[in-house]
Amino acid sequence: MTDQHSASHSRRPVHSPYPDIEPYDYGYMPTDGKHQIYYEQSGNPEGIPVVVVHGGPGGGTSPNLRCYFNPELYRIILFDQRGCGRSRPHASQDISLEDNTTWHLIADMEALREKLEVDKWVVFGGSWGSTLSLAYAIKHTDRVSALILRGIFLVRRSELEWFYQEGCSQIYPDLWENYLAPIPENERHDLMSAYFKRLHGDDYAAKLNCALAWAGWEGNTLSIEGPPETATKFAEPEFAIAFARIESWYFHNKGFFDSDNWILENVHALKDVPGWIVQGRYDVVTPMQTAWELHKAWPEARFNVVNKAGHSSSDIGILRALVAAADDAAALLTV
Q1: Which candidate in 90, 104, 295, 311 is catalytic?
Q2: pLDDT one-digit tens code per residue, 39-55
Q3: CB count, 10 Å around CB of 14?
Q4: Annotated catalytic, 62?
Q5: N or C: more exposed end of the chain, with fewer CB within 10 A?
């Protein structure tokens, strides 16, 4: 396997994704409650540990999240956050989300790090994954060797209003009509509350209808190239219900942060942590204003604005920038 990877790397264009690989280890980690967290490891068991923090919240991992890392240099750790992906129980079921918060997820990350006997790891996350990565790093700075972030999202009210109430609606008015459709006109002044009530209610038909509209809105606005092929998963009922329920739960609870600006207020803790911020200029899901504010508050991190790119990590400029950041981090950490 090593010889095959070596040969493919020699022909690999600069900053293109690494070849597909399969995990060498996978399993479930129990928590103190009902949740069992799915995790997997791939790449080099003796390499630089990197934990990949997926988006959503509630999005789950996918095999393509391994492709940013040189498998000869990195020990690549993926896990599904509570309620989604292959973790159990799945939030498409009628389960309470009371024990699914930012702080539970951070505790899960720490428990996984200890289970896998990792001292420090690179933390890699995009969108909601950037939120959770930053919060984890602020709380456990001594366990983070570097941060690589994409599509910065801080769960602030202004960011949520932009995407779920008014703002992005003016860029995609055609798609917005589909998002509006499940909600009566007299409730559209507060769309997030109207969706929350239905997504966490007892009417399954209303729940499914709202979940598909909520998930479809996000899936179809990710890329400046138009709806990506991966948007089809947002039309799968099981995925859509879990995704929409978990997202609306976190947004209703303000990300479980003590203040609207908690991350920026505490990001000074990361001044000595090597960091890379990758942001699409035309990201309409998590607009560049937030990434710019993080850059100003954390100037030590490398800041890369990718023109002709949106929110999707599969937009070619974003993909190449993330591969380059991972390569740079590996070079820095192996000196």
Answers
A1: 311
A2: 999 999 999 999 999 99
A3: 8
A4: no
A5: C
Please state, rounded to an integer, the average pLDDT across all residues of the chain: 94
Candidates 127, 133, 145, 223; catalytic one = 127
- What is the number of other CB atoms lying within 10 angstroms of the CB of residue 142? 8
The answer to whether residue 273 scores a pLDDT higher than 80 is yes
pLDDT score of 8: 37
- The runs of H, that is alpha helices, within the chain are 2-11, 102-115, 128-139, 157-164, 173-180, 191-199, 204-219, 237-252, 262-266, 288-297, 316-333
Q: pLDDT band for position 299 (50/70/90)?
A: very high
268 is catalytic: no
Does the pTM surpass 0.90? The reply is: yes
Question: What pLDDT is attached to residue 16?
Answer: 83
For residue 147, give the nearest of 298, 250, 44 by alpha carbon. 298
C-alpha to C-alpha distance for 247 and 205, rounded to whole angstroms: 19
- Which member of 80, 283, 315, 327 is catalytic? 283
311: annotated active-site residue: yes
pLDDT tens for residues 61-70? 999 999 999 9
Q: Which of 200, 222, 225, 223 is nearest to 211 (CA)?
A: 200
Q: What is the Cα–Cα distance from 67 to 50, expressed in whole angstroms? A: 12
User: Would you say domain 2-156+256-333 falls under CATH 3.40.50.1820?
Assistant: yes
Contact 132, 153 (CB under 8 A): no
Residues of the chain with CATH 3.40.50.1820: 2-156+256-333
